[in-house]
Amino acid sequence: xxxxxxxxxxxxxxxxxxxxxxxxxxxxxxxxxxxxxxxxxxxxxxxxxxxxxxxxxxxxxxxxxxxxxxxxxxxxxxxxxxxxxxxxxxxxxxxxxxxxxxxxxxxxxxxxxxxxxxxxxxxxxxxxxxxxxxxxxxxxxxxxxxxxxxxxxxxxxxxxxxxxxxxxxxxxxxxxxxxxxxxxxxxxxxxxxxxxxxxxxxxxxxxxxxxxxxxxxxxxxxxxxxxxxxxxxxxxxxxxxxxxxxxxxxxxxxxxxxxxxxxxxxxxxxxxxxxxxxxxxxxxxxxxxxxxxxxx
Length: 296
Hints:
By secondary structure, this protein is of the alpha+beta class. The protein contains 6 helices and 17 strands. The protein has a 5-stranded antiparallel sheet with strand order 5-4-3-6-9. Strands 12, 13, 14, 15 and 16 form a 5-stranded antiparallel sheet that branches. About 4% of the residues have low confidence. InterPro entries: NA-bd_OB-fold, tRNA-bd_dom, Tyrosine-tRNA_ligase_regulator.
């Protein structure tokens, strides 16, 4: 019997020397980890969360707290007492600031609605309007978009300069309805591709708030192509010695959106915060569009 045990020990020792793993102890038992032979296959590890010893790669997680190596945050963390104190002391101030911000937004919204009703507008909105290149334009070469049923392609003459125009007025207008027409538009928005084709000019059209019908704005009959469009109370229309600013090549979309917020149809006339839009030859008009309808 003793000879058999001795022979078995020799065999196990030889195997251990070959695989570099102690075969006569349980590698899954973390309490024997101190006696494990360090090798490329078996290593002892200490849990980063609770400190329990366990063996790799046999145990993927800590047997006590189930923490998995490689996590950014262990399940047991230090309580941030100072942070809680700071948040508690600053809570009243934060609530006060939040309330002030809400009140300010509410006041701005009420002021905006009141301005639209009374026709009042901020002084800087007139300057922003000047930067929008609203023009009397002539539409030519109208045709349907090859890849979109509701889009119309055309060339827009804005006064000696021709730019591509794309509009989605079908079914309210067909290409033949727009060919050669004198209309109103804006010519310095950021170029935008619609179904693969770029447009640089946008028509101005009103949408009836009752019927949903869309109608393009009509400039004065004797308008010249390229005439600029302004509110009637613009300083340079009142005082001929004042020259309007030249619009930039591209108007930021946020500024254009601010201008569009003031667009309403009143008494059959497109207005900017209640002030009619005009050229030097007369007023811009619409036909059978309900008051309060929007246009852009």
